[in-house]
Task: inverse folding
């Protein structure tokens, strides 16, 4: 299958500069594209690579256009890339139909074009809407709902009463609706499990990565808001509510009852403590730990997380701390000399001293470590 | 099903204040409870919510009783809640029996009332005790023992020779008994796998979350002590020994051969290095990393983890470090002036200076970042 | 089965000191070994345990030999241990053959001696080489290749077009080839998924732990280099390339497009940001976060990770920071007194002051926290 640049431009909402009739057969990165490929320029730092690319045409923003090249000019090259790739790589759909090796419980209703692979186990009274796909080895508990066009990859487990919306994707090995982590009693002998009688609600257009865990609520629902994207190995605890369009990067985690606004981003390996509120569009940096509420639009880093500017300032200062200890000791000696009248050591202002002492800082530091 | 407050009080070991004959049909949080619901007051900060609640009765500690309300007075509202919830939400038990689509190896013995769901695979010479439940898709290796009343959720994998006690729950996707991470040889070419010939022992009353990994021992056993509760996505390495009644919160991890005492708590995303001993009731804060032995009762924070008081002190100091750098530079200039006799800059004591310089600290900090 | 020390020495490339004809029936740690067991001394700190052990013989390096004991003298005791253990614990191989309850797609080719357990699902056009083993519940997508002598443990899921080399082991619950985490569009409403059309390549002799996720590339391949060992719950994002013989310890993660050289080590719970290059033999300490390229041989710690010496220096300094704040305040007051001529406070040099003020530091710190 090939498309002209004009056809692709129409699809992605861009305009062609150069040869609109040029045909391309695929999409590849700038350095791998051949004369039959379309490519894309996602960041100005790759302008040189764009100039050197053998691609037949390049998707790019207007400000970054390489001169003398066929191009499809767009506002956001990545959004255009996503649309163009769907032309060349339409999503493979599992064939509709119920495998003879699938097991479906009583009272479960299947919509049009549902696909149940072999070794799928569906509980009782479930509702699988049109064109939903359960790949091999998926297990659903009783009373689970899966919305239209949703896809559950192999080995996904969904506990009873969970509700998944339309166009939801869950990757292999993820677990939706397992019990929240709730026990009563402080003693090691007397811990009693608090029954977790709520459920999980995954709204429309959510994508969940591999080996993700989303716990059911103690009461009510744990909610993953519409359009939210969750990467691999993420933990979402009981009674968490995640607003629309949020992003949880790999290995991040949210403790119980914390609420995220819309468009919140948790970067990789970050975490949020329980019972917090993270405002709309708040961003938590990689490996950071949020221990208090965040205002809308906040950008925090560190563990505990603080405003990103304060964090950078502190980190820069921390690099200078070993030397600072020596400077203060020197000041103390000098001032003791002045105060006692027994003699005054020379103290150089810092700007002059910095150059001459950098080697010494290193040596002293090694002793300190 | 409904119960009177008197019936519930008898069950949870409390006393009724108000109308002991009042009937309730369910349990709900204070803000969601209706006139047919029982509710609970778990923390004094919700006293106002308790006063405003429409609940028919409230489980509460004596010191927190809302005036003029029916109440069940108890010592620990959460323990009472756990007991009361079991009245209204008795644990659902899988129907006993062996699915015709389950596969059971030679020499395996099944107790009374065992439930094997479809697509379960059990190895040879296993022992499944009375009323144990293997949900769909569970796989057990050879020579595995599962104690009475234990429940393995869908997709759990238990490697050969693992031993699980009574009333153990393992949630979906968890892996018990996979090989410990042990290799010999430093070179990239010559790494040799050290066979992991030990096993895993899970004692009675342990609950393990979803997508948890517990590795088998190199020699001997990796042990999870009685009554310990493990949250989702936790890693327990080979030869770890966890004492009774410990708590491992989500995404925490314990490296090889480390020993935890009784009632140890690892908060979310925390970790302990290998070959350590963590004393009874030691507490490791969220995202902290323990790199040395902990005394019984220790409470540590940070990475590397230090005593929680020292950590808080350091964190408070760290917030002031960028400003401290400027203060020391100022002192150096002032002292240089004094010492050289060329002029003395005014130096204000810190208490006076703090107010006047807070703006400058911010501006300077941004440059430093 | 028993072996003489001479037979074992020949197998592990060592020499016997003492009774070469002494027979042993197993291998056990020093403190557990009986008179029929071989044991091993892996570190000088266990010399005393070696002297006290009841073992019939001890594998040890020449420098650590316990006097008066039968010994097998080797260069690297752990490498020798690995080889000796294989004598006593030969890897159990699944019986060859295809279970009648396995499902194999059209066009898939099976080599000699392949073992497919029950409830295995293999897609179309796959290639399973000689003696490869798919344990119960493994699911392979279409066009997957598995090399000779590779073993996939129960519940492993491999997405379409992934390529696994020879002698690869993947433990239970791991997911190879799920979609990379790539979306376009900053707004919460407009996020578009970028199709992930690349694949995963796992080279020969790789071992992957339980519940590990390795994402497919957006374009091209995510690559895990030959001989690399990956522990449990590790995340490898799309387009990552890992060199030969690297080590990724439990719960570590690598963000998209980052490249690791040969022999790189990521310790437990550590992470590397995206689009970085980590040079050969670079070592990232536990819980550290790499935010910039690393030179070959670098050893970094912290979050953000810095050279390990600098990190230790900073940590040592940080312990002293609360006290430093008090020292600077004291200097400021003293200097203000000097400068104004209103009086001079006594300032003691630090070495003298340290002893007398340690108690005060503690009290002040608690207020600061």
Result:
């Amino acid at each position: 299958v090939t498309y002209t640049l004009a056809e692709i431009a129409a699809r992605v909402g861009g305009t062609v500069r150069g040869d609109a009739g040029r045909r391309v057969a695929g999409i590849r990165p700038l350095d791998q594209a051949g004369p039959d490929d379309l490519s894309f320029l996602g960041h100005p730092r790759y302008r040189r690579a764009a100039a050197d690319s053998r691609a037949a045409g390049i998707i790019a923003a207007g400000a970054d256009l390489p001169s003398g090249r066929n191009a499809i000019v767009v506002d956001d090259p990545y959004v255009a890339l996503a649309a163009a790739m769907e032309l060349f790589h339409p999503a493979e759909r599992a064939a509709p139909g119920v495998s003879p090796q699938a097991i479906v419980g009583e009272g479960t209703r299947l919509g049009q074009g549902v696909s149940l692979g072999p070794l799928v186990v569906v509980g009782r009274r479930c509702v699988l809407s049109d064109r939903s796909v359960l790949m091999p080895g998926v297990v659903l508990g009783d009373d689970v709902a899966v919305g239209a066009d949703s896809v559950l990859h192999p080995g996904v487990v969904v506990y009873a009463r969970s509700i998944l919306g339309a166009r939801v994707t869950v990757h292999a090995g993820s677990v939706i609706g397992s019990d929240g982590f709730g026990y009563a009693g402080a003693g090691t002998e007397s811990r009693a499990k608090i029954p977790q009688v709520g459920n999980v609600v995954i709204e429309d257009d959510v994508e969940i990565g591999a080996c993700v865990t989303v716990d059911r609520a103690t009461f009510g629902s744990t909610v993953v808001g519409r359009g939210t994207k969750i990467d691999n190995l993420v933990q979402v605890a009981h009674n968490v509510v995640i607003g629309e369009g949020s992003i949880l990067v790999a290995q991040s985690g949210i403790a119980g009852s914390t609420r995220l606004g819309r468009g919140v981003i948790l970067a990789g390996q970050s975490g949020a403590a329980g019972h917090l509120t993270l405002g709309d569009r708040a961003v938590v940096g990689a490996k950071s730990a949020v221990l208090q509420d965040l205002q809308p639009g906040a950008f925090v880093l560190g563990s505990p997380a603080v405003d990103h500017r304060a964090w950078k300032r502190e980190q820069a200062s921390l690099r200078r701390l070993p030397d600072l200890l020596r400077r203060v000791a020197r000041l103390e000696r000098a001032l003791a000399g002045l105060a006692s009248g027994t003699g005054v050591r020379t103290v150089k202002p810092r700007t002059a001293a910095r150059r001459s002492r950098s080697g010494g800082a290193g040596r002293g530091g090694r002793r300190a470590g």
Remarks:
- Residues 308-340 of chain B form the longest helix (33 residues).
- Chain B touches chain A through 71 residues (CB under 8 Å).
- The longest strand of chain B covers residues 37-41.
